[in-house]
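This follows on from our talk about sequence and fold. Go ahead and set the record down below:
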Amino acid sequence: MWAARAAVAERAVLTRHLRRVWALPGTRLGVSGWPANARQKAHTHWNYWWQAHLLDCLVDAQHRQPHPGRATTMNRLARGIRLRNFGAWTNSYYDDVAWLGLALLRLHDCEGVTVATPLTRITAQLRAGWTDHAGGGIWWRRDDDFKNVPANGPAAILFARWAEDGGERADRQRARSLTAWMEELLVDPATGLLWDGLHVNPDGSIRDVVRTVYTYCQGVFLGACVELDDGPGVWRTRAERTIRAVAAHLTDHDVIRGRGGGDGGLFAGILTRYLALAAVRFGDTPAGAAAGRIVLASAEAAWRNRALARGGPLFGPEWSQPAQEPRSPRHRRAERDLSVQLSGWMAVEAAAVVERHQAQ
């Protein structure tokens, strides 16, 4: 059931959002809004890290049901991202480049695409982003005073995977160090949830801790712990605690809460991706069962409350509430955002992963 729904969600997102870059053959990019305004049609407004998640969703779909046409689309999207980024693979935001690195590495593992050049550049930038300010961790962006979970989490996941697939042997230790830094400084002892990040003084001391809680942060910290898990021990204990904390504080009847449109539109979907990986890794344990239950309940709510639009289902930013179709580029609804639609698609793909695992 979920595999079929995921195929429908994929078709809807690609029909409404996937276009060439500046009409150039052999390229694709996700239009950031639908219906699109002039800036979006021209990819003037394009959101680098949303494109990484679009590529990640296509890899999910290829694992679900391989198709040569999709493989072509993924290669064209990777080419389009680099072209729109003016020939570069990286930008000033460490979280952005970590996400693209993860998507490219998954593309390589899925299709054998050569990604050594972009991964080398991306991971070199991430390694250079580590400093001893605030005891470690990488910055959110270059020349900033902020270190946060949204940058350190995906970087840790990428380093853990890259260490096994072409990177440096020390990258796995980097993944451990990044995750341990988040654990030490950014876990709320009262709830077990991850705070957003912290501001650092020039002398390396901590000026302020930003105690905002995002579903995004829980997802990437959980993902890092799952990647580092090698049996009962500290990483599994931290992953299990995070799953319990999400269930207790960030869901309603097991449905993950939304965070509106824009960048926040991706947050819930990111959490479902790594909950699904935890459900597979931890199997029939209480933590594995809880992770799978949240994924399925969230995907079911997103699907039940979808709107019907051109191309197929349209997801809302709050999965427990009915989505509404935007009527024009001037209609300021979060449903217009590619981020919101990717998040819904991600949840449905995550449910398909859990469904396949439960059927085995």
